[in-house]
Amino acid sequence: MAHNLAQCQFLINKAVLAGAKALFLPEASDYIASSPAETVSLALPTSQSPFVLGLQEEASKHGLAINVGIHEPAEGGERVKNTLMWIDERGEIVQRYQKLHLFDVDIPNGPVLKESNSVAPGGAIVPPFTTALGEMGLMICFDLRFPTLSSRLRDRGAQVLTYPSAFTVPTGNAGHWKMLLGARAIENQSYVIAAAQVGRHGGNRISYGHSMVVDPWGKILAEAGGVEDWEAKGKEAELITAEVDLGMLEKTRREMPLAPRRDIVAVVDG
To answer: Would the CA dihedral through 45, 165, 93, 10 be positive or negative?
Structure first.
């Protein structure tokens, strides 16, 4: 975790120099363990976590909001929470979202990942909340495949949707990552910010990378590299930047109004 904190501090310094208003870090930025048992054993309450406390200190020192995925102990001590936190410019944890859709997948000729072996699912969305970038809607990785969740956040006022992830290489290479992020941006006419883990973890697990920012029209504003790029650059953490233009967002929504038509679903179901 000390190494991961140092990587995050490196990105924080780069974000501050770039004039960023917020920094978005991936899912499970504190650690990715090699087994369910290790995942549970490493989890600490945020008040005791050197990783979280270190990020809070950096946020306060630089006046920079930080969105970051971490692990927290779940009730009973047998599993953890896959949590996405919003640390504000004062260094305070002001929002927490617990991942709703867990990644239980058996990929042919690929990894078998059973997130539910060590992670307890969340039970509710976090209503969009005000930030310097706009109204923020929080989701994590596998939530990307469930469009109803993002549409609920959009209907409740979200302008920016987050998907911090540790996406698998087979599904990334199949094009799912880019297509799904673009779809969520277009159908919700929202900015999508997806900070992604990249490279090799413990065991045979590899994350796809390609962190991305997509605008409400589906245009990719910024994209980081994948595994090969990461290895070629000496495994250095990469920062990408993009501007959130709420004027462009409102223009897109005004010229192609989608929200008023969502009630058609109720008519069909009824």
So the answer is: positive
Q: pLDDT tens digits, residue range 154-193?
A: 999 999 999 999 999 999 999 999 999 999 999 999 999 9
Tell whether pTM > 0.90. yes
Q: What is the mean pLDDT of the chain?
A: 93
Tell me if residue 99 is catalytic: yes
Neighbours of 114 (CB within 10 A): 13
Q: Which residue in the list 58, 135, 141, 223 is annotated as catalytic?
A: 141
In angstroms, the Cα distances linking 40 to 71, 76, 171, 193 are 9, 11, 26, 28
Cβ atoms of 9 and 54 closer than 8 Å: yes
Out of 8, 72, 81, 99, the active site residue is: 99
Task: Answer yes or no: 89 catalytic.
Answer: no
pLDDT digit string (tens) for 117-148? 999 999 999 999 999 999 999 999 999 999 99
Alpha carbons 119 and 142: distance in angstroms, whole number? 13
- Do 215 and 221 form a contact (C-beta atoms < 8 A)? yes
Q: Which of 8, 27, 58, 115 is catalytic?
A: 27
Give, in degrees to the nearest 5, the angle at Cα 259 between 254 and 262.
155
**Catalytic annotation on 238?**
no
pLDDT in the model for residue 191: 98
